[in-house]
Amino acid sequence: MLEFLACSLVTILPDYLFRRFAQGKRFGHEITLYSVWYELRWGITSCAILTVALITVIFFYHPTTSNVSSLFRTVTVLPEESGRVKDVFVKNNQHVEVGQPLFNMDDTVERAAVETARGQVAGIDADLELLTAELAVLEGRIQQARGTFDQAANELARKREIFLRNADVVTERELESLENLRNSTEGGLRAAIAERDVVETRIRTVLPAERAIAVSELTKAEAVLAKKTVYADVSGTLEQFLLQPGDIVSPVLRPAGVLVPLDVAHERFQAGFRQIASPVLKVGMIAEIACVSQPFEIIPMFVETVQDVIPSGQYRPGDRLVDPQDLQRPGTVLVTLAPLFEGQAAEIPPGSKCIANAYTNSHDLIASGELGFAGNLYYHMVDTLGIVHAILLRVQAIMLPVQILVLSGH
């Protein structure tokens, strides 16, 4: 409407003034409701053409969109394993810190597994102490066997020396008995040493390996037990957290609630502009937004980032070929808007629905001197027409409460 009124001042109005004062035609006489389309045909036609051209230029160089929102991240409160809730430590809408316990589940079986694993470790430690004591006993037995063997060997050596000197004093049968005694004591000594080696092997190799396995089982059981308590991964506020003792929670079917982190949004707004605006959307260009949650307020922004891909073209490989005609929605160019001055958008709740205008600035192009007279005039006109869009945004901001509270019918 504003564009039409502006265009009519340079088309319809001059045409009427010419008809009125040059041709003497008047409203209600020569110019009536039925003849106005013929009498002012040049002005009306020129106004329509100029209005369409003006709207096209404005909406191309100063794009607008109502697809603006401050997106924020949420964290789903989920256990790693399914179970029945035992205790709930927090309430809905409560602020929680990182690492704070939220709830735990029934852990009878897991605690029994932990105690069993601890018993196995304690049993292995007891076996280690027992074998250490047994090793000391075997060392004493070896000393005793070595003494008996030395005594038998010495006695045999002495008798042989006597036998060599005087065969009548020591008989061969006596030497055979002493030799058998020496061999028997030597076998006992070797058996004691072998038994000691077995015990040392169990102390040095077998029991440490068994203890390492038992400790890993204990660690595994404790880890499973720890999963029965769910903690907050980030600091934030719990939403939709209506958990009660006795409820069943599952990582697939039944989440416990939603955690909204404290660092949501950071005063950043995501705007989806139509694809035709892609050539003029540049990082750093000035923009303005008006949000439903803050009526009658215009917040100056600037384009912080422009996404270099359009989401409608995204696909995931599957068992069917992608047909472009199935992509019915054209998709939008995603732009991130940041406040021109920090803190201006702090009072807008994350997730608010907004409308935004972006304004093309051709000052650098004009100042470069690369344009001729016609180019300078055209881009000066383009920058000036941004005022029309700014006025439209303010009209929309004024009408937002009326549209929502009165004209929406809800």
How would you explain this protein's 3D organization?
- By secondary structure, the chain is an alpha+beta fold.
- The chain has nine helices and 14 strands.
- The chain has four domains: 1-61; 63-72 and 264-312 and 328-410, Elongation Factor Tu (Ef-tu), domain 3 (Beta Barrel), CATH 2.40.30.170; 75-105 and 228-261, OB fold (Dihydrolipoamide Acetyltransferase, E2P), CATH 2.40.50; 108-226.
- The strands form three sheets. A six-stranded antiparallel β-barrel has the order 1-10-13-12-11-14. A four-stranded antiparallel sheet has the order 2-9-7-4, with no helix packed on it. Strands 6-5-3-8 form a four-stranded antiparallel sheet, with no helix packed on it.
- A hairpin with a 2-residue loop joins strand 11 and strand 12 (294-306).
- The mean pLDDT is 82.
Annotation keywords:
single chain, 410 residues, alpha+beta, OB fold (Dihydrolipoamide Acetyltransferase, E2P), 4 domains, 4-stranded antiparallel β-sheet
Give me the secondary-structure topology.
Blueprint: H1 2-8, H2 12-22, H3 36-39, H4 41-61, E1 64-69, E2 75-77, E3 83-88, E4 95-96, E5 101-105, H5 108-165, H6 172-226, E6 229-231, E7 236-239, E8 248-249, E9 257-261, E10 269-274, E11 286-291, E12 294-306, E13 332-339, E14 353-359, H7 363-367, H8 373-384, H9 386-407
Antiparallel strand pairs: 1-10, 1-14, 2-9, 3-5, 3-8, 4-7, 5-6, 7-9, 10-13, 11-12, 11-14, 12-13
Helix pairs in contact: 1-4, 2-4, 5-6
